[in-house]
Write a structure and sequence with these properties.
Elements lengths: L15 H6 L13 H5 L3 H10 L3 H15 L1 H21 L2
Helix pairs in contact: 3-4, 4-5
Length: 94
């Protein structure tokens, strides 16, 4: 393998999967499953959009838009925390 490999991971707090997808995380832990079958339609589109994103910041924006569309009221209340977390990550990994 040559060149650069970028990785992007979304990590959920306990209960996050249940809030966003109505699926308890323990149902998915240590198991193989089809993402769209388990978490709903649109996951393939999220994967494509993340792959097309030009930067880490763009990937965060794409993921944020997708996840916030699941629970808009929650995201409006938590937006300042997300922005702070992104700022800190970009400063640590420029």
């Amino acid at each position: 393998m040559h060149g650069r490999v970028d990785a992007f991971t979304i990590v959920f707090q306990p209960g996050g999967m249940l809030v966003l997808f109505s699926v308890p995380a323990e149902k998915l832990t240590n198991d193989h499953f089809d993402g769209e079958a388990a978490l709903g339609r649109g996951l393939g589109e999220l994967e494509r959009r993340l792959g097309d994103a030009a930067s880490f910041t763009d990937r965060v924006r794409v993921a944020d838009e997708y996840l916030c569309a699941k629970r808009p009221a929650f995201c409006r209340a938590q937006h300042f925390l997300f922005s702070y977390g992104l700022h800190e990550l970009v400063n640590v990994f420029p």
